[in-house]
Amino acid sequence: MTARGWFLFSLMGVVWGIPYLLIKVAVDAPLSPSMVVFTRCALGAALLLPFAIRQGGLPATVRTHWRPMLAFACIEIIGPWWTLTDAERHLSSSTAGLLIAGVPIVGVALARFFGETERLGVRRVVGLGLGLAGVGVLTVPHLTGGDARSLAEVLITVIGYATAPLIAARYLKAVPTLQLIAPCLALAALVYAPAAAMTWPTAMPSLSVLTALAVLGVVCTAVAFVAFLELIKEAGPTRATVFTYVNPAVAVAAGAIFLSEPLTATILAAFTLILAGSVLATASGQRAATRPVLGQPEGEAVHGDSGLRRGPEPRPDRPDRGEARAR
After folding, report:
1. Nearest to 138 by CA among 224, 250, 5
2. Which DSSP category does 67 fall into?
3. Average pLDDT estimate for 26-35
4. Which one-letter DSSP state was computed for residue 219?
5. How far apart are the first and last CA of the chain?
6. pLDDT of residue 124
7. DSSP-based three-state secondary structure for 171
8. CA-CA distance, 212 to 50, in Å (whole number)?
């Protein structure tokens, strides 16, 4: 990846490594999952919508791309954020964060159905395996509690998180980042507004809960989504989700720095595996230039990472004049 890609990757490893802690603080207050998701989406939409409107052409963008935008909103936000938040009423925040580390594996499997033609190669497969092994070494001894329903809810979240970037990369690549995420957050806020109103707390939450909600909405939603969509454009949907391997490591580092938690040899070994796996799994691959993409005419093939398509090979009676045609 480029230097910009690595910056976005590192940023996502941090800002989406802390929502599990913030969600746990909120649901233990206790606030309802609908209230937490509504607050998070409403804050994010309030921050991003003015900038999206200022860009101009937002209504036209929504009219043109409303179907994939609706799918993205449902699969990335409306469904997974509620199931994850509800699961954390019974699972520890670390357990939830660790289970989410399965997103890249699911993403690799699903990419075949979205016309992804990039060959994984031995290096990237080994990287994915190392990252998953690192998460296991780091966390298996500390997994706690949870029932079948909560685990199923996290699985639903994992599938949503793995699918949505593929939708964004295939159908929404031309949509400006702000004009994609701001309407999606606003829609999610409207969906959860009635349930949030019915479960509104009778007393003012504590300062720590209000702070958790504010950070969740501003940093982990508004800022993080802009960075995430830019990372998808920079690195592709499969490599972009590998930062979920870094999230558990971020949680351990934060505990060691701010809570004086022990930094053991096991933790250091897990850090090594996770970081090495991330580097290998995000390595550039080669595309199969002759394999047709799902929904693409048979005579065309994907050309590199730019998304340009090449036309059919010239016939003998029409010699190539050296002019590349891009559509």
Report:
1. 250
2. H
3. 93
4. I
5. 26
6. 76
7. helix
8. 24
* Phi/psi-derived region of residue 146, left when phi > 0, alpha when psi is between -120 and 50, beta in every other case: left
3 state SS of 270: helix
Length of the chain: 327
pLDDT digits (tens, 9 = 90+) for 162-173: 899 889 888 998
Structure tokens at 253: 């580092």
| DSSP codes of every residue in 113-145 | GGT--B--HHHHHHHHHHHHHHHHHHHGGG---
CA atoms within 13 A on the CB side of 126: 7
C-alpha count within 13 angstroms, C-beta hemisphere, residue 2: 9
CA 278, 106, 222, 72 torsion-angle sign: positive
Residue 54's CB: how many other CB atoms inside 10 A?
9
Average pLDDT over residues 232-238: 77
Would you say 166 and 116 are in contact if contact means Cβ atoms under 8 Å apart?
Answer: yes
Contact 166, 111 (CB under 8 A): yes
| Residue 206 in this model has a pLDDT that exceeds 60 | yes
- The CA-based angle 155-205-215, given to 5 degrees, is 55
Beta-ladder partners of 241? none
- The pLDDT tens digits for 270-299 are 778 877 877 777 665 544 443 443 344 444
Residue 307 in tokens: 């998304």
Q: What are phi and psi of 184, to 5 degrees?
A: -65, -40
Asked whether 113 and 294 are in contact (CB, 8 A), the reply is yes
Tokens of 218: 């501003």
Would you state the structure tokens that stand for residue 152, as one six-digit string? 């199923």
- What pairs with residue 273 in β-bridges? none
Q: Are 177 and 229 in contact, with CB atoms under 8 Å apart?
A: yes
pTM to 2 decimal places: 0.73
Q: Can you read off the two tokens belonging to residue 50?
A: 């003015």
Question: Which helix (DSSP H) or strand (DSSP E) does residue 308 occupy?
Answer: strand 308-310
